[in-house]
Amino acid sequence: MDRPEAGVTASQFVMQAYDLLKKEWLISRTARTVYRTAAVVSLGSLPVIVAIQQSSPVPAYLKQLLLLSLVGMALNGAAMECFLFRFDKSGVLKQIFWFCAMIFIPIGPAMYCFLVYSRSSVFKQDNATSSNAAGAVAHESVENRDLR
What we know:
Blueprint: H1 10-15, H2 23-26, H3 29-43, H4 45-54, H5 60-86, H6 92-101, H7 107-117, H8 121-147
């Protein structure tokens, strides 16, 4: 990791790590689908863990399901933390509540994904911007066709 520039404190430098993620990685239709799927898969880890505890020789398919659910947990947890710190516009107390709730993996990040992330106004703004941009491109192509 690079050293902080002159005049930048170490805590400011660490918080800039969230800026390394592109906005599209957190806010897009594809990202929304990926994180919702990861939330469902991570919630699937609970029955898998119970099944592993109840079987004496652990079958290979349960190990594979556990690995898949752990990847889903990691992906969902990291993405929801980044969204909380960068784009969540809710009040400070709500943010503190959700930060504490996300400690309880896999339930906390999955609940945040379904209750806050999926309903965020950031998606509404992003959809309006993309539809306006698509309309402008369509209007521009009609004008270009008329000029020919």
